[in-house]
């Protein structure tokens, strides 16, 4: 289900209420109510995300990531309403918000860079898709002969190479050949296997690291305690947590520059109602990440990528042992794998560009919110200045 | 062998149909009125027919041996190149065309086999397998050739050459207002170079003589259904070229965080470079698009897809830098660089829309529009903040000597530079406010600029400045100095407007009014300073010698005092200074001359300390900015000139 369902009414409520009661004491109670509602909506959205993993889209599939970004955009809109709409600007320039809001904005800037890296990373995934499509094209031509197998293998080798190339920081030479499928292959054709299909260069400056970026975003993320926990410090904390989680999930799923040492855990207090589903999701993704890291395969946890990788390995094996005209049983198996591959390619074809656009949408939305918050901070600063 | 013949055999009737159709296709193909789609279909049909021909003609009687013979010949050719290290197209056109012919033959054969019903015969299958395998080897080779040609024959253009259309000298982005002064203005008419897809705007990114080679590789790879490999190799090679070119253009990969933290001086040089790189890269993209069209334009949607994939992520660093700059609110001194950035995007927005008009390029189009919006918002906000900054510029002590305040200089220089960006600013401000709806009746001599959005804003900025100067003038205790200060500053404003493009925005009316203003302050100055002093010389009826002597003495003391203070005041503009000195002289010296002339018999010589000529000379020392004194040196000794 779309996460936007109850958003409109929520925003309306806030704006109407704020316009009605500007400076009365009753305001506080209603603000608490707004906060409750915000938390409830966050909880609902993430529980939707959790439950949607049980049916067709598993965690970190393209479709799921798109849902995640949808949820992010909705939470973000509500957060902004809670924080800014109809509010007296001086309120957010007082402690503890005078510290928390700038910290939040710092995280926003870091998130923007992660968005850029991820949008770029999606392009790498599209590159995998193109290579997989060649494999499909080769194997779909019947009967399968040496020509098709060699054609497929060339694309598969490139695919495995680019998948491996995205691992960690080491920029291995693209000339190195994928070692898996060398057995018995006619080798004079291998000289060009990888050269033409070099993966993309990164988009950030040399030292930039997605892992460090996520680390820095979560560094001073502390749940508000005591009196603060009922004030505006709470939504700032919630939104920060959502942002860190979403960016972290993107980095885990999509190849991003330098992911060595990516966090597998950031502290979200377990007793917070709105965080329950998020914690479960986080654990699940972290588990996957650890598994992949052990195998030293970090092309990304994107479900489609992982399936490509699995099928790719199996098809390379087939290609290596193939002898014309091939055994019927094995060929049937391959046909099934190829149709799975083709189905993944279709999913990628349908989902990757929209995902990329959505990441850009998040980027632009976050930029605009940052400007709005800065404007309010600016006003608040001016208003409170004479009293100092 | 007989098996093969039976598979491949077509009856004689079919032969005639094929021959006739082929003839028809050739005749149609030579027609000039065909569109590309039709032409493509015909060429496919033609190749299909000839493949049938090979099979059919050769299949008659002993012909199949010839098929095998031909196959072996092609195989030899193709495999021969596999053991060689050199590239086919490097070895001359003959080698290339022979190779292509061999591939074409194989491809036709494969095509023919595929189009016929599949026979379960083992021998037949083996031949197909060999042919397909050979085709794959050839395709792989062609892919290498393609990349080799693209890399070897790529052409870059000196950025200087690419940007020769740059339409105005660069504005110096500097925080100090001194350097903003005297920026040369150039006519706007030189603009407007983009939007039209003129040929000279497009350059050859690959040596033109290899285009047919690339095209022939594309044709055979597409015909053999290896278009994906072709596109991947082509995109990859061209993307590398673009990334290399971005490095040549010094486009750095900076994170947004880096940009936001950067010091202004390094940022300003990066902005300059960005503007330059953007102008060039758009030209480059136009050329890239043509290259894609030249090579793969015949294959429908392929060309825009390739073009979008080549450009997309490579543009990300450029776009992201722009976004980062647009994210920050800036001081007024940074408005120029924002406007430069805004302009280069705004001017090319339509062109980008044309370049990336297909669905595949939507991403680039959207990003450019977002960037355009972001830069517009920030530039507008920065411009608006300028007025507020002027209003907020307060002083606590009077500006020395009543001279021209730095704020006046800064504002006037700033806005005169803004006029270079007239078009952009008019667009930016259009949504924000409404222009003067009722231009004054006598405005016929003014240009239309006078009533544009920018003009209104500029006049409102100078009003704010005038108001601020008025406040600043109140800080002087001496009313006369207040007037000197305002006269100086208003005069400066008028001169600045008259001497620059600003006159077109402010109009004659504004200039006239402001000339009157500073002249009024000159008059007021004279009144404030001299009324009292000259009243000492007034004839009040008592002609007693003592009182006349006293009057004369009093006048001299008063004059000395004025001299002492007003030589320290400053009127930087020599013409204005002279004018004021002359009119002061006329007034004061004349009154003094009349007084002394009228009463020459009554006033003692020792009381006439200065001659009228002395006063005239002393007045020339006024407003020089260096205080002097007459008292000590001259009072005790009588006249000595």
Structure, described:
The complex is a heterodimer of chains A (388) and B (641). Chain A is an all-alpha fold and 388 residues long. Helix content of chain A is 65%, strand content 0%. Chain A contains ten helices and no strands. Chain B is mostly helical and 641 residues long. The longest helix of chain B has 34 residues. Chain B is rod-shaped and about 145 Å long. The termini of chain B are far apart. The chains are: A mainly alpha (388), B mainly alpha (641). Chains A and B meet through helix 4, helix 5 and helix 10 of A and helix 6, helix 9, helix 10, helix 13 and helix 15 of B.
Unreliable runs of chain B: 1-11, 57-62, 164-170, 174-199, 434-446, 633-641
- Listing every helix as H and every strand as E from the N terminus to the C terminus, the arrangement of chain B reads HHHHHHHHHHHHHHHHHHHHHHHH
What's the β-strand tally of chain A?
0
Structural class of chain B: mainly alpha
What share of the residues of chain A lie within helices? 55-70%
- For the termini of chain B, the CA-CA separation is 135 Å
Termini Cα gap of chain A? 50 Å
The helix count of chain A comes to: 10
Classify the secondary structure makeup of chain A into a structural class: mainly alpha
What is the helical fraction of chain B, as a range of percent?
55-70%
In terms of per-residue confidence, which ranges of chain A show pLDDT below 50 for 5 or more consecutive residues?
21-25, 167-197
Beta content of chain B comes to under 5%
User: Over the alpha carbons, how many angstroms does the gyration radius of chain B reach?
Assistant: 42 Å
Main sheet overview of chain A: none
Integer count of domains of chain A: 1
- Determine the strand fraction of chain A and express it as a percent band: under 5%
Shape of chain A: elongated
Q: Largest interface here, residues on each chain? A: A-B, 51 and 53 residues
Mean pLDDT of chain B: 81
Q: How big is the Rg of chain A?
A: 25 Å
Shape of chain B: rod-shaped
